[in-house]
Design a protein that fits this description.
The structure is a single chain. By secondary structure, the chain is mainly α. It has 2 domains: about 5-60; about 70-224, no CATH class. The chain contains 6 helices and no strands. The chain has helices spanning about 5-25, 35-100, 105-140, 150-170, 175-195, 200-224. Helix 1 (about 5-25) packs across helix 2 (about 35-100), helix 3 (about 105-140) runs antiparallel to helix 4 (about 150-170) and helix 4 packs antiparallel against helix 5. The protein starts with a helix and ends with a helix.
Amino acid sequence: MKYKFEVLLCLGVFGAGAVWSKILFPSEFWKVGSIHDLFEIFGAIATSIAVYIAASWKKQLGSSRDYELARKIAIAIFQYRESSIEVWAAAYDCLQKYSEQENLEKSLRKEFALSIEARLENAQSFRAEIQAHLVECRAIWKNGIDKDFSEVFYFEQVCSKCARLYLATISPEIHPLDAITARGQLPRFKEFLEKKGMISKDAAALYMDEELKSINAKLESIMK
């Protein structure tokens, strides 16, 4: 029986009360006037036990729900971290090609663009998964964990925008004026990454780990 200990504890407390009442009160105190009164006493005992078990069950159910939600977010974070680093790598590759004024052949442009887009969409899908979980977090935990993701999401979104701007400059479908505008914005992204010190994959990984530190700490405390 799952709540055997709790039931025995309640009965023990009741029994202890009965013993002490024998000592403190006269024997007439424990005489039951009718069978109806006796059933009322048993009913009160059963109700007390049921309330205690219900409270214990509710607490355990809440803990299980919190653990499962934290576990899902932890897995999604790991996947998002890896994919975001790949997005940084995609942005860095694009900036390198832009800085070196490398002109890709038409046959290679599509292949390069598809490779970049695959990395960007992969990170975007994991971000969407985390954001879906955060809606539930806001309703249940109210510990501000959703706000901790703002910088993490911002980093990935900036890198994605940088890569897409470069892809626009090499797209055969873009208007020449739009291509000029895109080229004019790319140096700002390069400056942003250099200012953050993210000029290598290891540096990007270190940045992500630092931004995720407080989030992982909150999840670990929930899963304990």
